[in-house]
Amino acid sequence: MRFTTTTTLSAIAALAMGLGMAVANAQTIRFAHVDPADWQNSKKGAAAEIFKNIVEGETDLTVELFPAGALGNEDELVGQAQDGITQVVMVSGAMSKVCPAASVLDIPYTFPSAPVAWKVLDGEFGAALAEHCLEKTGLRTLAYGETGFRNFTNGVREIRTPADMKGLKFRVQPIPLYIEMVKGLGGEPTPIAWTELPNALTTGVVDGQENPVGVIYNNGLHKLQKYMTLDGHVYGADFLLISDEFFQSLSPAEQEVVQKAAIVAGNMGRSIQQFSTALGVNAVQAEGMQVYSPTAEELAQFRDAAQPAVKEWLAGELGDDAEWIDRLDKAVAAATE
Question: Structure pTM?
Answer without folding.
Answer: 0.89
